[in-house]
């Protein structure tokens, strides 16, 4: 299994903090966000990673090389990082992933390393980590589920009242499911010229076509996505609980 980390974006909402450094290299408690993510993968036995870069990519490459010299890291550059979204970045990873199962992670999450183990232990080939209890609005990636946690709908457009919770940006996916996603993304990007979409749009199309993806409630395990300065302040509190 490989870890795939999407770290191409500019993160304009965190400026000026990201004027000179990519978001994933911002520090919390003396560690970078990316460093904590890589430590969490290694703690779960995943030492091969694919990292999609774009904005200030040299800093990311240098950090990984210097801080994790034993890690087997492949880098994929998103040349269109200023005008595309994470669906495009995921599409670029097909060759580097090579048909294997993966854990997919957004690069801006501070989370309890046990979440990866929780996904691995569910027995589901394709699943994602979901949190409950938070007030949901327009910006969250919301998940509507059937009994047993099988996902019916996923995306920002899911009405908050229909949602079981929020997807936090950590997924476990089989090579077979990924192959279907890559075909969907290929069509969206090359035929339809839809490049600024979230990868959850491809998840939804795969689900509509009969693929099964399950939402796994992480319970009390801590996690937070960092998009704003307020999120950074909240993440410092989360770190004290990890």
Keywords:
globular; nine-stranded mixed β-sheet; two-stranded antiparallel ribbon; alpha/beta; Spore Coat Polysaccharide Biosynthesis Protein SpsA, Chain A; single chain; 242 residues; 8 helices
Describe the protein in words.
With 242 residues, the protein is an alpha/beta fold. The chain has a single domain (2-239), classed as Spore Coat Polysaccharide Biosynthesis Protein SpsA, Chain A. It is built from eight helices and 13 strands. Strands 1, 4, 5, 6, 8, 9, 10, 11 and 12 form a nine-stranded mixed sheet that branches. Helix 6 crosses helix 7 (200-208). It is globular, with a radius of gyration of 17 Å. It starts with a strand and ends with a helix.
In short:
The protein is an alpha/beta fold and 242 residues long.
Task: Walk me through the topology.
Blueprint: E1 2-7, E2 27-28, E3 31-32, H1 33-43, E4 48-53, H2 57-67, E5 72-77, H3 86-91, H4 94-97, E6 102-106, E7 109-111, H5 114-121, E8 127-131, E9 142-145, E10 151-155, E11 165-173, H6 175-191, H7 200-208, E12 214-217, E13 223-225, H8 229-239
Parallel strand pairs: 1-4, 1-6, 4-5, 8-12
Antiparallel strand pairs: 2-3, 6-11, 7-13, 8-11, 9-10, 9-11
Helix pairs in contact: 6-7
Mean pLDDT: 93
Find the structural class using helix and strand composition: alpha/beta
Just give the CATH class. Alpha Beta
Strand percentage, roughly? 15-25%
Please state the overall shape, judged from the principal axes of the Cα atoms.
globular
Please give the domain count: 1
């Amino acid at each position: 299994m490989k870890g795939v980390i999407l770290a191409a974006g500019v993160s304009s909402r965190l400026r000026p903090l990201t004027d000179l450094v990519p978001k994933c290299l911002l520090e919390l408690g003396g560690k970078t966000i990316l460093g904590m993510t890589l430590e969490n993968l290694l703690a779960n036995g995943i030492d091969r990673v694919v990292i999609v870069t774009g904005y200030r990519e040299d800093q990311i490459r240098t950090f990984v090389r210097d801080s994790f010299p034993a890690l087997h890291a492949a880098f994929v550059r998103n040349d269109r990082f200023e005008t595309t979204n994470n669906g495009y970045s995921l599409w670029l990873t097909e060759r580097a992933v090579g048909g294997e199962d993966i854990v997919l992670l957004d690069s801006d999450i501070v989370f309890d390393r046990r979440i990866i183990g929780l996904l691995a232990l569910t027995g589901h080939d394709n699943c994602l980590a979901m949190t409950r209890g938070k007030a949901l609005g327009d910006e969250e990636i919301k998940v509507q589920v059937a009994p047993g946690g099988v996902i019916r709908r996923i995306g920002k457009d899911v009405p908050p009242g229909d949602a079981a919770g929020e997807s936090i940006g950590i997924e476990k996916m089989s090579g077979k499911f990924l192959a279907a996603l890559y075909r969907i993304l290929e069509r969206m990007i090359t035929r339809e010229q839809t490049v600024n979409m979230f990868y959850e749009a491809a998840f939804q199309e795969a689900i509509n076509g009969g693929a099964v993806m399950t939402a796994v409630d992480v319970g009390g395990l801590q996690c937070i996505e960092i998009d704003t300065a307020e999120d950074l302040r909240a993440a410092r509190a989360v770190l004290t609980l990890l």
